[in-house]
Amino acid sequence: MQIQGDELVLVDRVQVDKLRENIKFILEKQPDYSMDLKEFLNAYCDHFHKEADDTCIERDLTDLVTITNEKDTNGPRKIALTPLYVFSVEIAQLLQDHKGSILMTNVETTYFEKYAT
After folding, report:
1. Which terminus of the chain faces fewer neighbouring Cβ atoms within 10 Å, N or C?
2. Which residues pair with 110 in a beta bridge?
3. What is the structure's pLDDT at 13?
4. What are the residue ranges spanned by the domains of the chain?
5. Which residues of the chain fall below pLDDT 70?
6. CA 19-24-28 angle, 5° bins
7. Among 2, 27, 5, which Cα is nearest to 16's?
8. First CA to last CA across the chain, in angstroms?
9. CA–CA separation, 102 vs 110, rounded Å?
């Protein structure tokens, strides 16, 4: 359930969880973990053969993605993974690169060697 204004709304968590997985699948493959929103919606439809519910994304997945407003960017709206989620993806990739284990004392150095810009 979720509160919207003065109303309590029932949310289908199965649908939201599937949407979350599908969004991660697409955005994790992008070099900067973001896309133009229209491009993303087209890619979603092409890959999963159904439309993504952008209202649900903006309402229920703020922990996973941010969507910019046109007036904030003076350009097309963008969808991007949140910084915390990007960090978790990068840590998971580091662990994969190192066959599942990195000494705790080496995590910071290893991370910056790969991802420092």
Report:
1. C
2. none
3. 81
4. 13-115
5. 1-11, 70-73, 117
6. 160
7. 2
8. 41
9. 9
